[in-house]
Fold:
Amino acid sequence: MSRRVTPALLASALLTAGLVGCSTDTPEAGSAPAPVEPSSAASATPRVPAGTAPQRAFAVGVRQLKLNRDGRALPVTLWYPATGESGGAAKRSATAAEGRFPVVMFSHGLGGRPDDYATLLTRWAAAGFVVAAPTFPHTSRGGDNNVLDVLNQPADVSYALTQVLALNDRAGDALRGRLDADRVAAAGHSAGGVTTIGLFTAGRDERLDAGVVFAGTALGVGTAFAGAAAPQLFVHGELDEVVDYAAGRAAYDKVPWPKAMLSLTKGDHGRALLSDGAALRVVSDTSVEFLRWTLYGDPAARKRMPTDAKRGDIATFDDHL
Structure:
């Protein structure tokens, strides 16, 4: 994924997948689920050492990091655990909380920006994670919506991850000593879900311990999952009108590692991710427990996941973790 890839066949495939519609403004349409194949690699233990995740909620700070990869501007929004009272909006450049925190790289959808997902991402930060979200040069709102540039984004994320982790050793930086480079995950929605899958296939970044894919598909990046086992959580609406549920399920079925899929019975392409509500609470609580398990090695979080996922009968939970 280090080179720019723009073959016509990939353009056709990605456009057919509907990634040009990641803004979630089109009508809903249902699709039938594909059969699931249990993973033979399922294990009760992530690759990080066992530990206990923080149970208290943190205040959240937010800041911007200006990056550029070979002429590709990549401003990164950072949400992080901060000192002070929990709850409320993230505070600009707040003092970081004491401790060393896992890092989650988040990729937005086509026509989106990191701030669109602030409700979800601040909840991750409040739970004890540093969340770093690049704004991609061509697929963000205000860009040229070149869907093929999704294929360059796994390399963008890897570059941004390197720069974010470097803050841990940078004299005078507010996050110095606060980042745990050995506990890292990638996550993303729609085109960002493609980006995330790419980070575990053609553009495998071995620093990644886990992945969370929201309404994603493997078109363009393939399903040749590579490297050390990294548990994956897929989240997909069964009424997704942009990326067909069956396409997301097909990618999920190919994951050879511990995995789970949260299927939102009445969910669309992702509006539940953008504003607070019952569906977002199920998604955020389930994903927080997944990240606690995979990045903190917390076995209690693993046990809580099925209960969180099925609360309110909003979703079903296919569990092969």
